[in-house]
Amino acid sequence: MPDRVDRTERLLNLVFALMATSRPVPRSVLRDQVPGYREAASDPAFERMFERDKDELRSMGVPVETVIDESGEVLGYRIPRDAYAMAPLDLTLAERSAVAVAAQVWGQASVAAVAGTAVRKLEAVLGDAQSWVPAGLAGEVVLGSTEAALLPLLQAIRTDRIVTFPYRTPAGDTAAMRTVSPWRLASTDGHWRLTGHDHDRRAERTFRLSRIQGPVTLTARSREPLEAAAGEGGEPTDPTVRATVHVEPWRGASLRRAATAPVAPGMAADIEVAFPSMDALVGALCAAGADATVLRPAEVVDRVHAGLLELHRLHQPHVGGSS
């Protein structure tokens, strides 16, 4: 029996198939040629799978078109290349080196093949990686316990699964098993934190990944919806702070994910974003740098301006002695 195709891989395969030709691709061809659809148990199962995938791609801003003839019959589907294809990559030395370092990190993980392929494609265009990877970055990058926990937690969020892991509290000497519905991961103050529904305490909790003392295990159970724990001892989870932001084409991915309405990734656009707090909003906008410009409200514009000025001050070299 062939291996089951991961959902993300299936979505990518569908995008590739719909962009490979300017002509509409019939469902029967997609059913036969796209890995992941061939393994569907029946035609109705394929239909349900394809409809979900098509809707999800559209919600992410992928322009999947349905082509209909004069009589109203569906001829097939396509993704116009001029509406979605990326421009040719022209990476600087520093950007190429970053890809190489990322490949070293992910080389120990489940996406090792994808990371290696990215470097090989760069080599095909730019020459042997040894000629543009700085010598100081050579060698294998080893994942610590915090980074190792990221992979299963990301998978759990993506596949709606509950996880278990041994966790040590700041005041505790030993770790206790926790059962959690993971909702979101965020890096603040140099530390990765997981926010989710703690099933043992029946409330929203935040966990620092550096305090996870063993493997993160995915269970077969579906995770608790994000809204379920609101009012059960945790903070309200609905984003309440909003701003209007201009994002450049192919930039501001984290802001586009926080948009209140879908927007195509290749388009420059004015979008409304929503975050759970003012600090989270200002932090995301400062992190976007030149990729995004805050338009309104004035309070957010002022706070982002002040934050960027403070970042600039902190990164200036110190000249002379202490004052």
Task: Summarize it.
With 323 residues, the chain is α+β, with helices and mostly antiparallel strands. The chain contains ten helices and ten strands.
Structural overview:
The chain has 323 residues and is α+β, with helices and mostly antiparallel strands. The protein has 4 domains: 7-84, Arc Repressor Mutant, subunit A (Orthogonal Bundle), CATH 1.10.10; 93-137, no CATH class; 145-222, SH3 type barrels (Roll); 241-314, no CATH class. Helix content is 37%, strand content 21%. The protein is built from 10 helices and 10 strands. The chain has helices at residues 7-19, 27-33, 43-59, 81-84, 93-106, 112-126, 145-159, 253-257, 278-288, 298-314, and strands at residues 65-68, 74-78, 161-167, 176-188, 191-198, 203-208, 217-222, 241-247, 269-275, 292-296. A 5-stranded antiparallel sheet has the order 6-5-4-3-7. The chain has a 3-stranded antiparallel sheet with strand order 9-8-10. A two-stranded antiparallel ribbon has the order 1-2. The protein is globular and about 65 Å long. Residues 227-238 and 319-323 have low confidence and may be disordered.
